[in-house]
Specification:
The longest helix has 20 residues, at about 60-80. The chain has helices spanning about 5-20, 25-35, 60-80, 90, 95-100, 110-125, 150-165, 190-200, 225-240, 280, 295-310, 315-325, 330-335; strands at about 50-55, 130-135, 140-145, 175-180, 180-185, 210-215, 245, 250-260, 260-270. The chain contains 13 helices and 9 strands. By secondary structure, the protein is α+β, with helices and mostly antiparallel strands. Strand 6 (about 210-215), helix 9 and strand 7 (about 245) form a beta-alpha-beta unit. The strands form 2 sheets. A 5-stranded mixed β-sheet has the order 5-9-8-6-7, covered by helices on one side. Strands 2-3-1-4 form a 4-stranded antiparallel β-sheet.
Length: about 350
């Protein structure tokens, strides 16, 4: 074989080795990894969030849709509708002079103009905020709806009382909806700090009865007994009149641990409102079927007939006396002779 052919074969082999497949497994893996990581940090539950912890029966997307619908309806009723995004005419103020002054001059570079427009569009998009936003909680069938409202309790209590009064279903997929006032790290120190700040609002001025409800998902590091003991001691130090009541407390301290985070809320009328369970609030007790009026009257008459007959039946002595009184004088003389 000539040296020229050897050189061609060597160059072809090295080129094939360096060439990478367009549709290989590594390419797909990297693509999906990048797509998963893009914006994932903004859509996860973080310390400092507040909102609503929603549990569902497996239909997650339907549960998210119903949660948005219900929460937005009650938020509009309590706080008013959200302001609409400003239109381009509002930005210019309707002034032709302002539009002309903002228009780029002939001397200005086109690249600079495009850069300014892109920055302005990005600022408008970032400034736009929503009242409610679903974020990943880290547990199955458990959602966290983040909110910008200062107090989630007000809306949740109104929703639960309306359900209890009307007995009308608002969702087939939502099971419970707990208002969460703070999210922190799942360690004892952070939990006590957050509960201490929230307790100043609920337990400091007047003595209250309370109960501590502790649940955890995908976490075995945090001790249930330690959390309950420390939280109870903290609430007692706020006011000596605060007493534990596990049956019908005025306030319930909710501690929901999910992986490495902890959702904390102090809820009023927790057991009276069926633990904020939408299904239990709407469920009506099954009435006892009433018997027809005619059957009731007939059964009562049959039951009372023997009693009336026994009461009206005269005694033997009374029968003799009545027979003597009713008999004629001749018959009475015969009876006397006998």
């Amino acid at each position: 074989m000539s040296e020229a052919k050897k050189i061609k074969l060597d160059s072809a082999g090295t080129a094939s080795d360096k060439r990478k497949p367009k549709h290989g497994k590594t390419g797909k893996r990297n693509y999906y990894a990048k797509a998963h990581d893009h914006g994932a940090g903004d859509r996860c539950m973080k310390p400092g969030h507040r909102g609503f912890l929603v549990t569902c029966n497996g239909h997650v997307r339907d549960c998210i849709r119903d949660s948005y619908r219900i929460l937005n309806a009650y938020a509009d009723e309590l706080y008013g509708a959200v302001d609409k995004a400003p239109t381009p005419s509002d930005d210019t103020g309707g002034n032709g002079d302002a539009a002309e002054s903002n228009a780029p001059s002939d001397e200005e570079d086109i690249s600079i103009t495009l850069q300014k427009e892109a920055e302005a569009a990005g600022q408008k998009q970032n400034s736009r905020s929503f009242r409610f936003q679903n974020v990943e909680s880290g547990a199955m069938n458990c959602l966290f709806i983040q909110t910008t409202l200062p107090d989630p309790n007000e809306m949740a209590v109104k929703l639960m009382k309306d359900l209890s009064a009307t007995k009308k279903h608002k969702s087939r997929f939502i099971l419970r909806m707990l208002p969460i006032q703070a999210v922190c790290r799942a360690n004892l120190k952070d939990i006590i700090d957050v509960v201490g700040k929230l307790s100043d609002r609920f337990f400091l001025k007047e003595p209250k009865t309370y109960a501590i409800v502790f649940n955890r998902r995908l976490n075995n590091d945090l001790s249930r007994d330690d959390v309950i003991r420390e939280v109870a001691e903290l609430i007692t130090t706020k006011n000596a009149g605060n007493k534990a009541n596990l049956k019908s407390p005025q306030l319930a301290v909710i501690v929901e641990v999910i992986k490495g985070l902890c959702c904390i809320g102090i809820l009023p009328e927790y057991y009276q409102l069926r633990k904020y369970n939408l299904v239990e609030l709407v469920a009506q007790p099954s009435p006892i079927p009433a018997a027809p009026a005619k059957e009731v009257q007939q059964s009562n008459a049959e039951e009372n007939a023997p009693k009336l007959a026994a009461r009206d039946k005269p005694e033997p002595a009374e029968q003799i006396e009545t027979s003597e009184k009713d008999a004629s004088p001749s018959e009475q003389d015969k009876m006397a002779a006998e």
